Amino acid sequence: MADRVLSTVLPRIDEDYGGLRGVPGVRIVPTGRSWSLTHLRGRAAVHLVHPDADWRPVLPEHGDGLTQLWRRNRHRLHPAEAADLQERAGAAADPESATAQDWLNSRLLRRPRLLGEAGAAHGSANVYTHGGGDLVVEWCCAVERDELERRLRQSGLAHPPGRIPERLRDQPWFPGEIAMGGAFVTLRRGVCSASGAPARRAF
Predict the structure, then answer these.
(1) Which of 40, 68, 139, 190: disulfide with 25, CB 3.0–4.6 Å?
(2) Which of 142, 128, 122 is nearest to 189 (CA)?
(3) What share of the chain is helix, strand, coil (3-state, %, to 5)?
(4) Running DSSP on this structure, what letter comes out for residue 5?
């Protein structure tokens, strides 16, 4: 699972579907006998801790339509990463909305049990960003959409920190949106594609 998480976080170009995947600017570096995730444009670091003291990550290679940018540009940003970061922090961007999105991303990462139970019927929920402005959660069968929204709200997901002001865009545009300070989570419960799979609730 640790290797899967790293392969998802590390930035790469999807040559088949187009676009940047992973977190732009993130790099993995050895720190003695352990490992850390760092960012090329900041001093933040996430230190990786594994129960096995001799653990070494199995890192993804180029291939299967993916170009691993963190391998190709170890000490500098790839142009696709730079463009993504510039768009996010550019003059046209809303800095408060970007801050809110960071808070929302962080909070959602701290609620794996709720997302795991939503996708429990067939493995896991599908979570991805959409246009850089929100997060989308897709699943089927395990729980009704309204129930997942209730659980997420009850957990405090949408309660904004004091320094993030509410704005008009905090009113959802689409059914299934949870808004927080200009950032959004869109909940989509789809039709089950597994033939003959019984529907069940995980909550």
Answers:
(1) 40
(2) 142
(3) 30, 25, 45
(4) H
Count how many Cα atoms sit within 13 Å of the Cα of residue 16 in the half-sphere of its side chain.
4
Residue 98 is which amino acid?
A: A
CA distance 69 to 44: 19
pLDDT tens across the length of the chain (203 residues):
788 888 889 999 988 877 888 889 999 998 887 899 999 988 788 888 888 888 889 999 999 889 999 999 889 999 999 888 887 665 445 666 677 777 888 888 888 888 888 888 777 788 877 655 578 888 888 788 889 889 998 998 888 777 766 665 555 566 668 887 777 888 888 887 764 444 443 33
Q: Quickly list DSSP for 52-92.
A: STT----PPPSBTTEEEHHHH-SSS--HHHHHHHHHHHSTT
* 3-class secondary structure, 119: coil
Token pair of 193, please?
């594609």
CB atoms within 10 A of CB 180: 20
Length of the chain, please? 203
